[in-house]
Amino acid sequence: MTFPTAAFPDGVPVLRDGDVELRAHREDDLDALVEQCLDPQSVAWTMIPRGYDAAMGLEFLTTTVPQGWRTGSERAFAVVATHPDGRRRYAGTVSLRDLGSGRADVGFVAHPAVRGLGVMTQALDLLLDYAFDTLATQTVIWWAVRGNWGSRKLAWRCGFTFGGTVHRWLAEHGGYQDAWVATLHRDDERAPLGHWWSLPTLEGEDVVVRPLRADDDARIVEGGNDPAVQRWMPTFPTPYRLEDAAAFRALVTDAAATGSSFSWAVADPRTDRLLGAVGIPRRTDTSVEIGYWLHPDARGHGYAQAATETLVAHAFTPRDMGGMGALRAYVRVDELNRDSLAVARACGFEMSGTERAGQVRRNGTFADMLVLERINPLIAF
Ligand SMILES: CC(C)(COP(=O)(O)OP(=O)(O)OC[C@H]1O[C@@H](n2cnc3c(N)ncnc32)[C@H](O)[C@@H]1OP(=O)(O)O)[C@@H](O)C(=O)NCCC(=O)NCCS
Fold it and tell me: What mean pLDDT do residues 294-300 have?
């Protein structure tokens, strides 16, 4: 199945929303197209080949795109918008690929200069109007490499319903990557569904709390194998291997996207070196549980306290100001874990009770868990 065939460029409509225009690609888009395709984010998250050059760009503009229109396999539009330098020119590509039976796959890339300005939200909305109104498409699918938050937010903004993570599906750069998938049916409301959860970078005192990255894995492994971490984090694998760190990062990304749990790296603001991790292993509509651990060489400097304070501040910030809007934060500490208890107390958590036999220790004994809590001072009772 294909879309109806169309002449190129004469059969390509011009679609407009304010400053943003979708139109047929032109040869004079070449310079901006090459800039876009050399951008590291474009390469990291799409199938754009590495080492993109003018010849590849010209082939795309004069052969690939026109063929898509002429054969009906793909309808790609150039996005045109005013760049921050005031010049109006090529700002990205959005496209629909026909999958048959009224279904289409959506793809998009933005020129780096216009990212984060809302240009692509307008462009994708125009493309979706065109799909549903002109092509009579019934339903559209979006795929992205797991962790492509910018793409996911764009799909969320346009009303896509998130479907989950698919194991090793997207073929990119010689491998098969885990993929996020979402769909939008023509009858769906074209508005964001639910709350947007993500892993923002938080600036604290002497620490930065930021998303975990692959280059943190070696330090996570060192910390994860430390005897104190092994003792007090009974769910950590033994030994803690490099692949455990990678699997952990993947789980964190998925869980954060659904708002069920969150983990961040605690890093040195000067060197960006990982000092430990802080997280929210459980979140409900009212409360967040806070957890933390430090690499052995980062202990004794107040980093756990600084990171926990930073995270509590984020948890207590109202949602409409970018926080989590929690009413209550609590920690659960093995009654024998004096160092962790000291961090909780230093952060102003107050004892609220004991969870009897709340955790099984690594040696098989049951730990009574001390529960300490802080109530959001912004909340009026
Ligand atoms: C994905 C992409 C097209 C999004 O473009 P954009 O210009 O950021 O889109 P918009 O500004 O219209 O809106 C996207 C939203 O996501 C946000 N966003 C962008 N990158 C983000 C990130 N890494 N984490 C969280 N949010 C992010 C933007 O700030 C914006 O949200 P806001 O309106 O609340 O500020 C662009 O980042 C891009 O070209 N990336 C490389 C190619 C790519 O990934 N293509 C998609 C493959 S599936």
Answer: 97
379 pLDDT tier (thresholds 50, 70, 90)? confident
Of 204, 207, 209, 156, residue with least CA distance to 180 = 156
Annotate 297-332 with DSSP letters as a single string.
Answer: GGTTSSHHHHHHHHHHHHHHS-GGGTS---SEEEEE
What is the DSSP secondary structure assignment for residue 260, as one 8-state letter?
S
Query: What is the number of the ligand 1 atom nearest to the C-alpha of 109?
Result: 39
Q: Among 292, 294, 297, 357, which Cα is nearest to 329's?
A: 292
**For domain 15-185, which architecture applies?**
3-Layer(aba) Sandwich (3.40)
CA of residue 147 to ligand 1 center, whole Å: 12
| Spatial distance between the Cα atoms of 294 and 304, rounded to a whole number of angstroms | 7
Site to probe by mutation for ligand 1, drawn from 115, 196, 198, 212 as the one with most ligand atoms within 8 Å of Cβ, is: 115
Q: Which CATH superfamily is domain 202-375 in?
A: Gcn5-related N-acetyltransferase (GNAT) (3.40.630.30)
**Ligand 1 within 6 A of 148 CB?**
yes
The residue whose CA has the least distance to atom 22 of ligand 1 is 150
Q: Are 99 and 135 in contact (CB under 8 A)?
A: no
C-alpha span between 24 and 80 (Å, rounded): 10
Ligand 1 contacts CB of residue 20 (under 6 A): no
Domains 15-185 and 202-375 fall in the same CATH topology = yes
* Band of residue 172 on the pLDDT scale cut at 50, 70, 90: confident
Judged against a pLDDT cut of 70, whether residue 265 lies above it is answered with yes
d(CA 327, CA 349): 14
Average pLDDT of the chain is 96
Backbone angles phi, psi at 158, to 5 degrees: -85, 5
Nearest CA to 276 among 345, 216, 206, 342?
216
**Domain extent listing, the chain:** 15-185, 202-375
Nearest CA to ligand 1 atom 9: 120
